[in-house]
Amino acid sequence: MSHRRKHVTTAALAADCAGLEEHETILRVVSLRGSNIIEAEFPDGSTTLCRMPQKFNKMLWVKRGSFLVAEIGEADGKVNGEVTRVLYADQIKQLKKQAGVWPPEFNADVPPEEEEVDDDEYPPLEQNTNHRRTTYEEDSDSD
Questions:
Q1: What are phi and psi of 78, to 5 degrees?
Q2: Could you tell me which residues come within 8 angstroms of residue 72 by beta carbon, excluding any fewer than 6 positions away?
Q3: Can you give the pTM of this predicted structure?
Q4: How many CB atoms lie within 10 A of CB 39?
């Protein structure tokens, strides 16, 4: 793994989330538009388009309903934001503890905390929603 990839991965997975800069805001992902364009929702309900930087390609993934930190600036075309961080469950938990950082409108959307204790340094894997759950029932009828 190259030095650049290690640096981006460790920075994204770092558990210490120091807070937000004055020009950053927390957004919820509404949909993925393709070509590294993400439609995200502000706490007040308005939406915007944000660009995922090239350095995050094949290293950080977002899905609908996840949270991210974006730097909102002047609009060039329809896109007016750039993703700076993708928030994981432990980072969301830290931001909620800090007074005035986490928007109260997003409190209902945060999944409940799991009581698992993992000693590894990676965030917990989420359930894959792309696979159907199948249940097999054994037929005990005998002829």
A1: -95, -20
A2: 23, 24, 25, 48, 80, 81
A3: 0.67
A4: 15
